[in-house]
Write a structure and sequence with these properties.
Elements lengths: L1 E6 L3 H4 L4 H11 L6 E8 L1 H12 L7 E5 L16 E9 H11 L3 H16 L7 H30 L3 H5 L3
Parallel strand pairs: 1-2, 2-4
Antiparallel strand pairs: 3-4
Length: about 170
């Protein structure tokens, strides 16, 4: 799986976040093929405002936009022979995400994680226009967020409890 992360705005804010790892985690959970390629770009409010106006006809900034490339394969469709499956592009407004941390009581990393998962689910064909679709997508977002947090906690715990010989180097 290929994850491209471009930070056009907010390097000092989001540069250390594990976006590639998160995207790979979500794409694997969604059973996407190994040849899947996705791009996540962090932009300014001005840039996402332009994109929102141009592609959605909404004249204001938003937190995240998703642009699907190749359609998500059907359940019985095999993509083994495909060289690359372009899932699409995720565009996140760094400053909107930062502002939402106050509104929702999250950290910036939590907010970016939520927006990334949300956008990837859109690229996988999920939507939240109808109430039933919202419930399905929201439940999946929460499940993926919980599993992501659990996987990160296990890794941190594993690092904290490494044998001394590993931490100090083989003596």
């Amino acid at each position: 799986m290929q994850v491209n992360v471009l930070i056009e705005h907010g390097e000092e804010l989001v540069g250390g976040f594990p976006i590639e790892e998160l995207c790979t985690f979500v794409m694997k959970k969604m059973n996407l093929p190994e040849c899947t390629d996705v791009t996540v770009t962090f932009v300014s409010n001005e840039r996402i405002h332009e994109l929102n106006r141009e592609y959605r006809g909404i004249d204001r900034p938003t937190d995240v936009l998703s642009f699907e490339c190749d359609n998500v394969p059907f359940e019985d469709e095999v993509l083994d022979d495909v060289e690359e499956f372009e899932l699409g592009d995720t565009i996140i407004a760094t400053d909107v995400a930062l502002a939402q941390t106050e509104e929702y009581g999250t950290t910036l990393e939590e907010e970016v994680t939520i927006l990334t998962i949300h956008s990837l689910l859109h690229l996988c064909g999920y939507d939240h226009i109808e109430d039933d679709d919202y419930e399905i997508m929201h439940a999946l977002e929460e499940k993926l967020m919980r599993e992501w947090n659990e996987s990160r906690a296990r890794r941190v715990k594993a690092i904290l409890f490494l044998p001394r010989s590993v931490v100090r180097g083989a003596e």
